[in-house]
Here is the input.
Amino acid sequence: MKAHIITIGDEILIGQTLNTNAAFIGEKLTNSQIQVSASSVVPDDEEIILKEFKRTLDSNDVVIVTGGLGPTHDDVTRKCVVDFFQTELVENEEVLSDIKKFFESRARILTETNRSQALVPKIAVPIRNRRGTAPGYWIEQKGKIFVCMPGVPHEMKNMMETFVIPKLSGMLERKSHISISNLLSTGIPESNLFDRLGNIDELLQGAKMAFLPSQFGVKIRITVECATEEEANNKLVEIEQKIRAKVGRYIYGKNDDTLEGVIAKLLIDRGLKIAVAESCTGGLINNRLTNVSGSSKFLERGIVAYSNAAKVELLHVDEDTIQKYGAVSMEVARQLAEGVKAISGSDIGLSVTGIMGPTGGTETKPVGLVYIGICDATICTAYEYHFGDDRLLNKDRTSQAALEMLRKNLLGISYED
Amino acid sequence: MKAHIITIGDEILIGQTLNTNAAFIGEKLTNSQIQVSASSVVPDDEEIILKEFKRTLDSNDVVIVTGGLGPTHDDVTRKCVVDFFQTELVENEEVLSDIKKFFESRARILTETNRSQALVPKIAVPIRNRRGTAPGYWIEQKGKIFVCMPGVPHEMKNMMETFVIPKLSGMLERKSHISISNLLSTGIPESNLFDRLGNIDELLQGAKMAFLPSQFGVKIRITVECATEEEANNKLVEIEQKIRAKVGRYIYGKNDDTLEGVIAKLLIDRGLKIAVAESCTGGLINNRLTNVSGSSKFLERGIVAYSNAAKVELLHVDEDTIQKYGAVSMEVARQLAEGVKAISGSDIGLSVTGIMGPTGGTETKPVGLVYIGICDATICTAYEYHFGDDRLLNKDRTSQAALEMLRKNLLGISYED
Here is the structure.
């Protein structure tokens, strides 16, 4: 089954918006054994869109379109679908009912413009939108499948996951099976990871591997193709085990895991509570931990102690220590962790203090210098890190290093390399 | 001048890497008055690449290709260029000298594989690579321009900025000028915005407008094409003024502005300090405010008061009030804002409390219910909001609504719709 992805929208073409939709759809299709033959981006222009529908449907089994389904004048996709399939718009009762409920739940008044979104091409099975108002369309014609979804990422994602992928998967005839796994590492550079894995060909035995680095770590992608699903999965497990044997201490999870999610599970399983005192990350670590549903079970409070006064008043850091070593120091990191543990009555206190840039660096304390402190029932310690000169990347890197220190603490892995 | 952008690479197609190259090139071309007609992504497959070269050159003046120029087996673009233009590879002395210097400067040994990168299609003018080893190609044939660059973003960007854009701009006969502006709105749904703008054609007078919604608000993009730059800019200003006259209170900025950046500027200009007490957003609002460089000028501390104990102990919320109205209530939001203002000695206190989901909702207090409190020198108040059922989107929406309330406070705009 060959698929093409079309993204409609000037904003993508002129570089105002990154095409995250095509990436998401490409990944979901690939994971479902559907080959993505190519993808394209076209402007909000009816003539060009119609040509692209024709060109891509001619040479693919599936065409997936996003964008241009909103309620305003510049949303031309629905009109193009009607023209292309020579069909007409009909009001769909189920969709209208969804739209009405959506507006009721938000205590908003339904306008004519909104109501018009219940008009669906007659030939299409509407795909319900549980996160917005514009429905998607599923059209089957002459053995081809044509899917159309809104461009708003979270609306599209929900439709892909709950409707499109299950339906396509059900239609698939499988001749071989591809299994993919992504191991998530952090705290080790790509080249070191590569060196530690040794002879790659021997390790992979015909499977494929790719390294995808970011400020959060390196994703190791392993792709295995075998005659059956069982065979592919077994081979994948075998390779994974070999990789873990060599660099396992850096691997915090796989696939859709997040570091904060992995930590949340560890904390909840053990009935432990954590509190975080953030200086330079300004709330990012607490934000990440509370992204996990159920975070109130392990996180009771957090402090953004940006100023020295906040460090002293809220977290009982010693004023003389700040005077002597500076707010960005090993000793202050340690006291921040100790303070936040004490005031919250948590089992573990975590802290960060550093210089995120672009300004504020000095000869002895350059931009990118960070101290991370951790304090549990038995030990209170801090470590020094050196990151780069981009403020937002430094915040990400610092939050990741702090959470990774917490993970190592919980699993009894040494902090030292 | 019409251009098409081709990105070559499986990693883009299967969604492991976001296509930032196409976005960058699209933006640079647009800013240089070159129309991007469409863009596409194709796999590392010679047959498909050759077909794509033909298809796109047939209908465009310029085709810009990135990816697949590296030294390893899966980089097939150079071979495709040689085949497509029926030319041959010749060693280019200038390129070879660049490669040698690159390796010398990094104290690395030049291998045969590296040396082979000095082989350039005879028909091409090589584009020097100042950040890596693979040169780009500039090919002119039959009145068409074909440009090929490596996929490594910083290598490609340097070639675009120092060679491709200046050369294309020099060839351009300017018959008209395009100016683009993006107005950033929040707190009003796309459809309401559309309705309030009234007669769009009258408003635009031939210009184009697009709405780009997300959980943070709706971006309004206006595109104007006129004979001269001055004329286009004047018309743009005129349309912007008309839009602002109708929906100006919802517009917090334009183009690359962020809501937190706009607020930071207002706070710094007035010498005001803000403190935020976050319950349901768990640190996100403080994180956004500290993303702005120089945030220590206006933000001194922040509290993530997740538990009732934290609300009472740190922010002096009345325990009886929590008992009577619940932690998610108008009254508690008000007291949180008051408390954080008081303990930090700030000029303004901001607070949020709510139910982000997916669990924790009740009949009377459903998931998505949020109260935002704000307290300044003269007034302490709170408002009720209703968002959706996705935890992370709700955190984004809540942070945006709270920051927007702060902006309105600073500008003396009424909170009521």
